[in-house]
Amino acid sequence: MNIFFGMIFSTAVVFGFSNIQLAAQTATATFEISAKMQGGCEVMKACAFYIMSPNGTINYTQPGILDGEAKQKTGIMDAQDFLVLTQSLTTGHLKTLENSVFTGTCPSYNDGEDYTFEITRDGQTTRLDTCGNLLADDPQIDTLISFFGIFYGELTK
What does the domain layout of the chain look like in residue ranges? Predict the structure, then answer.
């Protein structure tokens, strides 16, 4: 089984519990991710965003449509899955992604969603954009994008 599919699956299972408890894990104080949607969701002022803290906790916010009440959810990645993600998003890998150039048509041009990530590792922040960098088919980025659907599904139950 692909390790990142396993990460997505186990993350979905973790988020499926109503009372998520912080698992014992080693904090990576120099690793943080902020992610946000943009594109078609902007018309209704409902673009979701999340922050993944150095211990694997994810705080997700789904703004209310047209400034309605926002919904929030907090979850935590399995310690092993978080370790795999942090080890995979190395400084070198991030630099390669940052230097890549997207040349296709952005989904947001047709009311779809694009994603922006700011990944801080070892004191350096890398900004990646699915409409500016070539991020398609990168398993780590696919995992980060999957969190939007996982959390949205949890909020709409």
Answer: 31-155
pLDDT at 67: 83
How many whole angstroms separate alpha carbon 61 and alpha carbon 71?
6
CB 98 within 8 A of CB 117: no
What confidence tier does 157 reach under pLDDT thresholds 50, 70, 90?
confident
Q: How far apart are CA 35 and CA 73, in angstroms?
A: 15
pTM of the model: 0.80
Which listed CATH number (3.30.1560, 3.90.1580, 3.40.50, 1.20.1070) goes with 31-155? 3.30.1560
Report residue 6 CA to chain centroid gap.
16
| Cβ-contact 144, 35 below 8 angstroms | yes
Helix or strand run (H / E) with residue 146: helix 139-155
Q: What is the pLDDT of residues 105-125, one digit of tens each?
A: 999 988 889 999 999 998 899
Structure tokens at 91: 């400084």
- What does pLDDT average to over the chain? 83
Q: Single out the residue of 19, 22, 7 nearest to residue 57, CA to CA.
A: 22
106 phi/psi in degrees, rounded to 5: -70, 135
